[in-house]
Structure formats: C-alpha cells, structure tokens
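Aim 2 progress update. The chain analyzed this quarter is reproduced below.
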Amino acid sequence: MKDGQFNNYDVFHEFLVQGADYDGYFEMPKIRTSDKLPCKVVTFSKAMSKAFSDFDCWVVFYEHDKYFERLWNNPKQYLNKLKKFSGIISPDFSLYRNMPLPMQIWNTYKGRALAVWLQRSGIEIIPNIRFGDERTFSFCFDAVEENKTVAVGTHGCIKRIEDKVFFKVGLARLVQRLSPKTIIVYGSAPDSIFKPYKDMGIKIVAFESEFSKTRKQVSA
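Predicted structure tokens:
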C-alpha cells in the first residue's frame, strides 16, 4: 500500500503535492510567486460559467467556499479551462475565528496544495494570504516567498469594527513576516488600513469586489 492511499484511493489528494517542498511546523507546501501582476480579476464561479470567455483575467476565490469546493474535490476537471486565464490567485478557503483551529490549518493547506499543483501544471500563481486571529499567525504565512507579491481579500472583513481590528493586526503581521513589494487587495482598500504600507513603498493594487459591482448596477 502506498503512503496516503488505501485500495488505490488517494485519501488526501497526495498527487497535488508530489515533488513539493514544505515550510513551517505544519508543513505547508511552498508556492513560487509569479512576477506578473493582474490587470483584471474574475471570481472562480464566474470564470467557470459557459458564457465567460474573457481570459485576460486572473481567477480569484474571494467568494463563499461552496462555489469553489468543487475544485478541491475534482481539480483535474477544471484544469484545462483554468490554464486559459492569465493566472490564479491561490484559493481562499475560509478561516473563521470561531472555526476550530485544526479546520483553519486544513483550509490553509488546501489552498496551498491546489496552488502548488496548478503551478506545476503551468499556471502563474500569486499566493492569497488569509488570516484570522493570532492563533493563525503560526501557519498562515508559511510557504509563501518574502519580498514578492501577495493577495488579501477585504470583502466582508472590514465592515464591522471588531473585524477591522483583527484585519489590521493580521495585515501588520503579514508585512512584518513577508515584507511584500506588492499587495493585491480584492475589495475596498481604505487609507485607514493601507496608507501606512503605501508610505512604506509597498504597491497596493485594489480590485472592486463582484458584490460591489452588482450593487452599483442595481442602484444605477
């Protein structure tokens, strides 16, 4: 019997991380960050619709997990279409603060593992960083290159005062740990959060969320 397999069934998708290097106590598979930057982004669910054909975009996963859990369940089914796009910001599985910590570690691993496999398949990758409270700082920055580009999502994370406080603390730790040259932001990037990092010389590239675009269309 091969490691990770039982009756030839790959119980943890071992094929995703074949040949990968690992980082940190929890052995997150390492991502090599693309030197390219997106000019447009599209959510995974929209990108996978039959009608969508603007492949000059980067695919992002800043939407409910239910819309892209299928990629984890059957990644090979979506590979050919994903390869048509300019690149991918790695999957953003949820890290809710009230979620048991082992689940948060597992969700971080899932995003890293899919990114490594997609990269090995020839796709440009920028790592998404999702953090929660201080407990997540022991693993959420692992396996990501320093002095490169990272991406974060603010949609739904900075509206309430409590959430905004946690986000600001996590972002500060991200910058301290990874010293990124560029931070891609999906959602609003208010100066109250991001100006100190602009002043440090970090390039902030923000993209309006799909939710915000839809609200504008409805109110127009």
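The longest strand covers residues 149-153. The chain is about 30% helix and 15% strand. These observations will guide the mutagenesis experiments scheduled for the next reporting period.
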